[in-house]
């Protein structure tokens, strides 16, 4: 007998105010864990402020317990990073995941690691998990890899490169997508003492200089902040204000671009220092981001998301809710995420009466076309960002419901609690 799916019905408050507790950055946490381990430090020693999301927890568990079979569930980042990590770490492991994960390609990364001498076998379909990996010392050398695939393949290779006997020269062929994520990886590697940088527009060189052990504090997550930007853009409260601690003005996170994009969609970003008093009476200064409305939206938005694909769902939903036509490019990686995000967006937006279309294979276009809305519960397709990006529509429609809302644990475990703290009603009931 199948289990009835959980459905949350969401109602929005008239006023949007409050302090929001964002999760720590998943992207930084996952990189810090791998680099920290390669530097010879125990899991838990550093870094500080680790994300408590599913993707990070599976890496923590794998590094801590070191089981023969490592099941990373639906965590794509963990699959890519752990494939490279296990290839340079003593021991034999099977790396597997959910049924969807077994259909997410990993052949490009495996081929590149094999060229360096890695011992990796496919246990199922060629080019896809699960994998059997026998770790060993790898020599390194010169590798070519396509630049227009997932940047996680590239980051996975780079992070293990300081352990290679001869280092690594990684040449990226063609256009390079999600470059800010590669830059984030290189920056974090250098924070741990590695000698790694671009030597040209498409070549990265990592010299065989070991990581150094050091403490590390993780910034909060700009990707998670994007949903609060969406709420600020959609609320009718002219005096709305959302405060988000733990974000920095000079962030290396690619999704910090959200503040620029939303400046065109009616949201103002202010960086402030706020003084707080702890239980002992000591005064502390805390950096915060304050969101307010600027009441200036573009009539149409054309944007290339090649460097920030995880923001696409948030921006698409915001634009249709604000009746802003768009043409979005740089979405080619969306088809190999937790779900085919292009297909999922097209399907679910019809439920709120919006018809978007695909051009050139992966561009998303909306010229204002609409259909009859059904307001059926939004399906999430085991994709956290579907739930997170559609929930703010409660500010525009009184009948928004999310099916299988627990998927948010992949990146933002306390999202529903934070929504309630901000005045939203989140009620579990039937469709």
Largest sheet entry: 4 strands, mixed
As a whole number of angstroms, the C-alpha radius of gyration is 22 Å
Could you give the distance between the termini? 19 Å
The parts where pLDDT drops under 50 for at least 5 residues are: none
Number of helical runs?
A: 12
Number of strands: 19
Helix content: 25-40%
Topology:
Layout: E1 7-11, E2 17-19, H1 26-38, H2 54-65, E3 69-71, H3 76-87, E4 91-96, H4 107-115, E5 119-122, E6 131-135, E7 141-146, H5 151-160, E8 168-173, H6 179-191, E9 196-200, E10 203-206, H7 222-234, E11 241-245, H8 258-263, E12 265-277, E13 283-297, E14 301-304, H9 312-321, E15 326-329, H10 341-349, E16 357-359, E17 363-366, H11 384-390, E18 400-403, H12 415-421, E19 425-428
Parallel strand pairs: 2-11, 3-4, 7-8, 14-15
Antiparallel strand pairs: 1-18, 1-19, 4-6, 5-6, 8-10, 9-10, 11-13, 12-13, 15-17, 16-17
Helix pairs in contact: 1-2, 1-3, 1-6, 2-3, 3-5, 4-5, 5-6, 7-9, 9-11
Structure notes:
The chain is of the alpha+beta class and 431 residues long. It contains twelve helices and 19 strands. It has a four-stranded mixed sheet with strand order 2-11-13-12. A four-stranded mixed sheet has the order 3-4-6-5, covered by helices on one side. The longest helix has 13 residues. The chain is globular, with a radius of gyration of 22 Å. The mean pLDDT is 92.
């Amino acid at each position: 007998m199948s289990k009835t799916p959980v459905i949350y019905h969401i109602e929005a408050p008239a006023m949007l105010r409050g302090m929001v507790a964002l999760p720590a950055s998943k992207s930084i946490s996952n990189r810090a864990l791998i680099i920290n381990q390669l530097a010879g430090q125990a899991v838990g020693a550093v870094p500080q402020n680790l994300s408590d999301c599913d993707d990070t927890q599976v890496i923590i568990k794998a590094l801590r317990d070191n089981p023969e079979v490592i099941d990373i569930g639906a965590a794509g980042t963990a699959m890519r990073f752990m494939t490279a990590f296990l290839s340079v770490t003593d021991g034999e492991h099977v790396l597997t995941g959910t049924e969807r994960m077994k259909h997410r390609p990993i052949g490009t990364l495996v081929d590149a690691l094999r060229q360096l001498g890695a011992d990796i076998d496919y246990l199922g379909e060629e080019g896809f998990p699960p994998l059997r990996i026998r770790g060993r010392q790898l020599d390194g050398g010169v590798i070519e890899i396509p630049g227009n695939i997932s940047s996680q393949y590239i980051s996975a290779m780079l992070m293990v490169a300081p352990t290679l006997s001869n280092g690594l020269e990684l040449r990226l062929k063609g256009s390079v997508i999600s470059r800010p994520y590669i830059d984030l990886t290189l920056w974090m590697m250098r924070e741990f003492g590695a000698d790694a940088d671009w030597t040209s527009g498409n070549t990265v060189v990592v010299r065989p200089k070991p990581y150094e052990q050091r403490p590390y504090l993780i910034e909060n997550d700009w990707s998670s902040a994007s949903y609060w930007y969406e709420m600020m853009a959609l609320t009718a409260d002219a005096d709305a204000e959302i405060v988000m601690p733990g974000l920095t003005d000079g962030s290396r996170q690619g999704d910090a671009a959200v503040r620029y994009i939303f400046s065109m969609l009616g949201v103002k970003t202010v960086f402030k220092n706020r003084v707080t008093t702890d239980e002992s009476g000591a005064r502390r200064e805390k950096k915060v981001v304050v969101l307010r409305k600027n009441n200036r939206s573009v009539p149409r938005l054309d944007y290339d998301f090649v460097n920030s694909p995880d923001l696409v769902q948030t921006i698409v939903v915001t634009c249709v809710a604000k009746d802003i036509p768009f043409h979005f490019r740089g979405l080619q990686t969306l088809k190999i995420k937790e779900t085919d995000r292009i297909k999922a967006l097209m399907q679910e937006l019809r439920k709120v009466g919006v018809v978007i279309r695909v051009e050139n294979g992966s561009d998303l276009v909306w010229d204002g076309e609409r259909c009859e809305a059904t307001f059926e519960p939004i399906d999430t397709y085991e994709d956290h960002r579907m739930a997170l990006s559609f929930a703010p529509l409660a500010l525009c429609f009184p009948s928004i419901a999310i099916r299988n809302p627990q998927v948010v644990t992949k990146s933002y475990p306390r999202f529903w609690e934070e929504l309630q703290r901000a005045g939203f009603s989140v009620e579990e009931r039937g469709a």
